Amino acid sequence: MTDVPLQSEGGGVPDQGASQSFHSPAATADDDVNDTNDSLVYQAWTQSGFPIVDGKYIDNGALKDADPDEAVVSGPPALDLYWHNRYLGPEPGLFRGVAAAGFVNVTEYIVRLGSFLAETKGACKIRALNTTLYSVNVIVTTNLSQAEMMQYLQKHGLAPAW
Q1: Domain residue limits, the chain
Q2: Among 50, 135, 145, which residue's Cα sits nearest to residue 99?
Q3: What is the residue-level pLDDT of the chain in tens, covering all 162 positions?
Q4: What distance in Å separates the CA atoms of residue 30 and residue 132, rounded to the nearest whole number?
Q5: For residue 130, what are the CA distances in angstroms to 27, 83, 138?
Q6: What does the pLDDT read at residue 8?
Q7: Spatial contact of 113 and 125, defined as CB atoms under 8 Å apart
Q8: What's the rounded Cα separation, in Å, for the pair 135 and 79?
């Protein structure tokens, strides 16, 4: 097992003196990317893209203290999710897009995407799907409203993905 220091479970920056960590099974030769542990605590990152560990981050080689009230974003191993609608009809309130974070592995996210497509029965069509280990971009065409689409995405755990 490998100890990896990460953010506090409440989502904020841990106290500077705190020793926060979680256990993650070490990667093996057959599974060099271990993304199956559902009990991970996810890493906080600064808005400018630096990981925060023990209340500190390195910016251009300088060690800096993170402001406890600073806005943070999720970073790896969290998923960066982006949905965009290519349909540009005249109807008011159409779904345009959403950016969110996902706290499941990419395989689980794709499974959820399949159940979403089965339920929408052609009302939402995928035009492009790009996935990496830490990012999912879904380009769709749909005439669903923003409210309808968000209801489907939340029901299937797609935006945000918990």
Answers
A1: 1-77, 79-155
A2: 135
A3: 344 444 434 444 334 333 333 333 343 444 444 444 445 556 677 766 667 777 776 776 777 777 777 766 666 677 889 999 999 888 889 999 998 888 888 899 999 999 999 999 999 999 999 998 888 999 999 999 999 999 999 999 998 877
A4: 19
A5: 25, 11, 7
A6: 39
A7: no
A8: 5
As beta bridge partners, residue 104 has none
Q: Residue 49: what pLDDT? A: 67
What is the SS3 string spanning the chain? CEEEECCCCCCCCCCCCCCCEEEECCCCCCCCCCCCCCCCCCCEEECCCCECECCEEEECCEEEECCCCCCEEECCCCEEEEEEECCCCCCCCECCEEEEEECCCHHHHHHHHHHHHHHHCCCEEEEEEEEECCEEEEEEEECCEHHHHHHHHHHCCCCCEC
Amino acid identity at 12: G
CA gyration radius, the chain: 18
Tally the residues of the chain.
162
Tokens for 105, please give them: 């592995």
Q: Which two tokens stand for residue 130?
A: 């790009």
